């Protein structure tokens, strides 16, 4: 039996059309792995925890730096020098104690990460380098887990959802087309709202997938331009020379 505080906490989203108690309960039963707790991961994890996702596994080896604070809103000045995952867990639990937060102070390729991915219903790739994204894509395909990947630099953001089905594309296909920016925040900078938009888009895809409310446009690359404030959608086909899905 759900307590009155449960209804009070989630009352506004329960008023959304086609979103009821059953959908909220599905969300609470779900487990999501968030790899990378920078700007993307902070925005996605903050929204998923607040909306009532049952379990979040946060994976990141880095510590908080002063330069992170304009766009990584789970951290404050008092957190500088501390492990991101520890600070993020404290902030997320403060917002919603009902959400279980598991933390792993590791990089994506660490051996401790694979069991986390195995028990997750969905993986969010919020990393900031191609090597990690390629590895995560290969693991998601191997473990038959859906994956939502995002990237942002300068005034551009990209988000795409991948499925593991045999004829579906993967991040390797996207990389083969050179369709995402190869530059980093360090070389080309980033505006906080741009990376937050991408992270929130990941969270919204996750909520739709976990609650089975709306079909997911698997393999559709969403490109956001912060200069014109416009979106572009491109369907990605499987690349014949992809190093991941053509193995």
Topology as H/E string? Answer: HHHEHEHEHEHEEHHHEE
Largest sheet: 8 strands, mixed
> How many helical stretches?
10
CATH architecture: 3-Layer(aba) Sandwich
Structural class: alpha/beta
Counted up, domains total 1
Could you tell me the radius of gyration in angstroms? 17 Å
Write the SSE topology.
Layout lengths: L3 H6 L1 H4 L6 H8 L2 E5 L3 H13 L3 E5 L24 H12 L4 E5 L8 H6 L3 E4 L4 H14 L3 E7 L2 E7 L8 H6 L8 H4 L3 H20 L8 E6 L4 E6 L12
Parallel strand pairs: 1-2, 1-4, 2-3, 4-5
Antiparallel strand pairs: 5-6, 6-7, 7-8
Key attributes of the depicted protein:
globular, 18% strand, Rossmann fold
Describe what you observe in this structure:
This protein is of the alpha/beta class. It has a single domain (18-235), classed as NAD(P)-binding Rossmann-like Domain (Rossmann fold, 3-Layer(aba) Sandwich). Helix content is 38%, strand content 18%. The chain has ten helices and eight strands. The chain has helices spanning 4-9, 11-14, 21-28, 39-51, 84-95, 113-118, 130-143, 171-176, 185-188, 192-211; strands spanning 31-35, 55-59, 100-104, 122-125, 147-153, 156-162, 220-225, 230-235. An eight-stranded mixed beta sheet has the order 3-2-1-4-5-6-7-8, sandwiched between helices. Helix 4 (39-51) links the parallel strand 1 (31-35) and strand 2 (55-59).
Short summary:
With 247 residues, the chain is α/β, with parallel strands linked by helices.
């Amino acid at each position: 039996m759900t307590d009155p505080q449960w209804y009070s906490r989630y009352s506004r989203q329960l008023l959304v059309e086609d979103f009821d108690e059953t959908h909220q309960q599905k969300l609470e039963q779900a487990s999501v792995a968030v790899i990378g707790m920078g700007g993307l991961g902070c925005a996605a994890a903050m929204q998923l925890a607040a909306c009532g996702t049952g379990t979040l596994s946060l994976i990141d080896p880095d510590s908080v730096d002063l330069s992170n604070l304009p766009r990584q809103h789970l951290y404050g000045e008092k957190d500088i020098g501390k492990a991101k995952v520890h600070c993020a867990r404290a902030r997320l639990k403060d917002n919603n104690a009902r959400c279980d937060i598991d933390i792993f102070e590791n990089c994506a390729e660490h051996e401790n990460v694979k069991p986390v991915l195995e028990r997750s219903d969905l993986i969010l790739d919020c990393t900031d380098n191609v090597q990690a994204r390629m590895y995560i894509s290969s693991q998601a395909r191997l473990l038959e887990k859906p994956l939502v990947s995002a990237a942002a630099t300068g005034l551009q953001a990209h988000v795409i959802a991948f499925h593991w089905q045999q004829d579906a594309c993967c991040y390797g296909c996207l990389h083969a087309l050179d369709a995402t920016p190869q530059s980093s925040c360090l070389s080309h900078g980033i505006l906080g709202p741009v990376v937050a938009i991408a992270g929130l888009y990941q969270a919204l895809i996750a909520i739709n997938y976990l609650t089975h409310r709306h079909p997911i446009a698997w393999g559709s690359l969403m490109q956001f331009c912060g200069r014109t404030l416009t979106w572009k959608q491109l369907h990605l086909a499987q690349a014949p020379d992809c190093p991941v899905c053509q193995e």
